[in-house]
Amino acid sequence: MSTNAPISILLVEDEEFDVSRVRNTIKLFPSRIQITDVVSNGRAALELIRSKPDRYDVVILDYQISGGLRGEELIGMMKDADAFLQIIVITKMTINITDYEFANNLLKAGAFWYCTKYPGNIEEYIYQPTDFLLSVFNAYGKKRLEKQKVKSDKRLLQNIESLLESKRIIGESKPMAQLKESIDKYAKSEVNVLIMGTSGTGKELVAWNIHLKSKRRYENFIRINCGSIPHELIESELFGYEKGSFTGANAMKSGLFEIANNGTVFLDEVAELSPSAQVKLLRVIQDGEIEKIGRTGSLSVNVRIIAATNTNLALEVNEGRFREDLYYRLNVLPLDVVPLRERGQDILLLFDHFLEYFSHDLSVPIPLVEGQARDILLHYKWPGNVRELRNVVQRLMLNCNGRITAKEISDPMILRNHVLAKDVTNIDDLASGQVLPLREMERIFRTRYFKYVRSISSSDSNAAEKLGVAPSNFYRMCKELGIK
Ligand SMILES: Nc1ncnc2c1ncn2[C@@H]1O[C@H](COP(=O)(O)OP(=O)(O)OP(=O)(O)O)[C@@H](O)[C@H]1O
Ligand SMILES: [Mg+2]
Question: Which residues line ligand 1 (CB under 6 A)?
């Protein structure tokens, strides 16, 4: 269907006289419209349409052709065979043109337009030529539009699908399977969601998935980091301002809520919102309206809010730092993202996923991973969750030579055990704030430290090596400490 080729017509007409009247009418624009084929019955027409996809743009169909297949039934079958085909119906005068029902049925069956033939004594034309030609041009225009729409819808869908693929949530453990189920369910709904989970567990990823699976997927997803916008700017960032509303407002600024209209707003670190920003947010949620600085009258917006927090928001409410009414507005549907250490084998799935990702990124083959190295990964506590795991893989990829060993993984440059540093240096934490005899304190320290080193070692002899003691001594010390 190139723009220069003439509009291709299939004429379905069983009376020679009418075939020539149609030809005559169309002849006025020979370079623009061309009758490609003429058939006298419905079956032949269908056969041609089916066997030669995209050969015709417009069908001119006589309503009263002979043979079993005709009328609305035939129109429906033609549209089934080629949804873009536009059908113009011509009928004998015997059908009352004021018959609304008749016209309506034709359109419902999928016809584009219909007209009644001129009486038989008018030999030249089938119908008023300009009207008839215009309807052919319009039919063709409609076909082009429909095709373009399908194409751009397809492109949009492909974009969404590739975005979804890049935001895929890896994990098959029970809590992750449940999380994915909730995401699918919540995506169908329009109400606000509160995502809770410690740092690096994947809260933003979850928010993206809800958005991309919801019917707002073609609209904006706007992330607002409530912790990073200075308090004095939050109002203008969220709601925008009109030109000239204050000194320095040289141009109108759209607020993030306005930009997100019809889409999703992701309020990250929502516990960080100042009390005054909380009040304003509450107003948006309650009334669906924003008050832009310097604008008289409010502006309606339609946004879905997904909020996330890594603190216990209910506790913040209890302690008076977060508004209770806002909390309930945000927390209509709660979602918990569990820490990585509670996801079992997902640790390895994620490890392999990131390994593949970074290998591809660096254009190197995916390295081999020793079984013992995997054991260490499985038993490590992952205080920084998935983000930490991702960083670990990235560091490993930069250092390894095609093989990842237990030794490499347990290198403190790789598994950065911040938790250990905190545990062993924080005296309060070590002995619950008490001052204990040195021997007692040493015992506590050793127990923790040994347990930790074992957790990041591939075997007990590997742990002993790291501690710089002979394996036999290590066994003895563990036994004395009651670790086994
Ligand atoms: N289940 C998962 N599958 C694949 N990638 C994941 C998964 N969970 C998290 N990630 C990746 O780990 C990184 C951290 O995830 P994300 O930013 O969503 O965490 P977060 O909970 O928002 O963290 P923070 O609380 O620090 O803001 C991102 O690169 C994300 O793509
Ligand atoms: Mg985040």
Answer: 169-171, 197, 199-205, 310, 350, 386-387, 390
